[in-house]
Amino acid sequence: MSPILEVRDLRVEFPTRRGTLVALDGVSFSIAPGEVLGVVGESGAGKSMTGAAIIGLLEPPGRIAGGQILLQGKRIDNLRYDQMRRIRGREIGAIFQDPLTTLNPLYTVGDQLIETMLTHLPISPAVAKRRAVEWLEMVGIPAAAQRVQSYPHEFSGGMRQRVVIALALCAEPKLIVADEPTTALDVSIQAQVIALLKRLAREKGTAMMLVTHDMGVIAETADRVAVMYAGRIAEIGPVREVVKNPQHPYTAGLMASIPPLDRRVERLAQIDGAMPRLSAIPQGCAYNPRCPRVFSRCAVERPELLDAGTTLAACWLHAKAMTDA
Amino acid sequence: MFAFIISRILQSVPVLLVVALISFAMFAYVGDPVSIMLGQDFTEAQRTALVADLGLDQPFFIQFAKFVGNAVQGEFGLSYRLSRPVAELIAERAPATLELACCAAGVALLVGVPMGVYTGLYPRSLLSRAFLTFSLIGVSLPTFLIGILLILVFAVWLGWLPSFGRGDTVMFGWWSTGFATMSGIKALILPAITLGLFQLTLIMRLVRSEMMEVLRADYIKFARARGLSNRAINFGHALKNTMVPVITVVGLQLGAIIAFAIVTETVFQWPGMGLLFIQSVGSADIPVMAAYLLLIACLFVTINLIVDLLYYAVDPRLRVSRGRGH
Ligand SMILES: Nc1ncnc2c1ncn2[C@@H]1O[C@H](COP(=O)(O)OP(=O)(O)O)[C@@H](O)[C@H]1O
Ligand code: SF4
Ligand SMILES: [Mg+2]
User: Fold this and answer.
1) Starting from the edge strand earliest in sequence, which strands make up the sheet with A207-211, in order?
2) Which of A206, A211, B133, B184 could form an SS bridge with A201, CB 3.0 to 4.6 Å?
3) Could you tell me the pTM of the whole model?
4) Which residues span the domain enclosing A178?
5) Domains of chain B
6) Residue B268 CA: distances (Å) to CA of A156, B141, B142, B181
7) Is the shortest distance between the CB of A110 and ligand 1 below 6 Å?
8) Is B225 in contact with A96 (Cβ distance < 8 A)?
9) 3-state helix, strand, coil in chain A (%, to 5)
10) ipTM for the complex?
11) Which of residues 56-75 of A touch B (CB under 8 A)?
12) What is the pLDDT of residue B326?
């Protein structure tokens, strides 16, 4: 099946006074229709940046300096602002982290839904109004017919994120970019909101790029997972494989630092050091100063994503395996 | 809603009482109305009679209560200078000041808000820089100097507009208006610009900074992510949120415009309340000064109330705290 989204060798740069920062470098992945791709990585790895590049809303002076983004086979990274505007909301929906700040406080949730639908869909205001109520019902807001008239501040955080989900889905996009959709929510309702998102995406056949640092959420929800490190993809593959059988030393470290659900452990492993700042990304493999398995080639040459059997991993260990075979 | 209005009105009573006390204190401690009214030749009996007549022999708080009671009815006695009822003098002058202030506020809003929106949306454009430079002039030059410069250029050099007075006015009942004649309208232009210029630049800078702030907000980013048009985002979502804080400041500025009209009215010899006040200060005409102070205080209080109500109408978040002041 041809992918909904294809990102090829994406490079995002931030020109600054002290030189150009490369925020994303050679990022490539694709998402199939209806598929959920989880994206994980430490804070600052470039997850949000990837999402922003896809929806065409990089904050200036950030810009796409190389590579391509294709939506259903058509390039969208080089569209003019107004052409891209018609794709946002209509073809690609977005969900942001903090539902307390993503809704306009001066408009009722109904008006925000109606406005979005009327922008993209050839429907009458009366139909949009009816659908606004239906969407609130679909995302599980009680007494939707009355609540459609409420303002955002009259909802709790979890309810507001449900409204945001309705807003992202109401023009029926084929792809959702969800950037840490539950991070700002109370722990007790995170699971409900993720379950809702997953169910709606399945029902509507919507593909999703789900950014989160919660491996539990990824294991529950995603079909495949991409692990990002310092603006690059370290490893990408089916969730089960990446979690149970990581092929990249960084993924292995990441998984070892997560408490397993099925058994107790005395001490969790920690990866020594910190992810490099953009201004000081090391030569060769970006992970080499922290990598327990580093060898001579790592500091010289940068590894591309290589076939690591069940996953793709950007690590020279797998190049050796290939030449040996 | 009704309870909200009532509570706001009650909250303003102490403010008005303090201003009334100050006005009253002027009577009691500035100048001596008895000697002013008696003139040079008088007997001690005449003096005692007048003191009793004016109620000046009664205890302080009874005098004050009487003063407040009279003030509520618009009764401030006779002007020392013109020997006419103060209320009549002020009613005569009020239309001139109110028409001037409204025009000045209109100019400030109708020019200041669009300039602020433009400079907020396109902060780097050449025109924005020109506006900002211009606003620097408006903020830094004192009002009287702007007035004199405008007179110099448009009245003296070009001879297009009159340099003083209201032109021909027409009476509608007790209200004298300058809007009904060409000369009245011409006479309004320079004073209105002079009075409004400072507020205009203030509003422009305020709208600009609020707009830039709002455009960085998450809900604007999310509105873009929803694919809304630029027009809907800039003039719907962003402008509406910008106006919330702007309303307060603009409301307070309207009060300031009326109060600051004193300078403009003096420069243009504009026959309004401000000029009346200045002339009264010159001759220690306490009743007029007291009445003017109280009137300005009432205006500020009323404007504040209107601002609160507008706020309430624009921002739904306030409606939950119904009845509670802030
Ligand atoms: N406006 C900016 N200018 C320069 N660098 C930025 C800017 N915004 C983000 N970055 C950098 O880009 C990198 C990726 O950030 P981000 O995508 O937000 O990370 P995360 O994976 O936590 O979502 C970080 O190192 C961050 O410091
Ligand atoms: S390439 Fe080298 S440094 Fe990088 S992860 Fe693999 S072994 Fe470690
Ligand atoms: Mg992020």
Assistant:
1) A92-95, A175-179, A207-211, A36-40, A224-229, A232-238, A312-313, A306-307
2) A206
3) 0.84
4) 5-222
5) 86-318 (1.10.3720.10)
6) 58, 17, 15, 18
7) no
8) yes
9) 35, 20, 40
10) 0.92
11) 57
12) 39
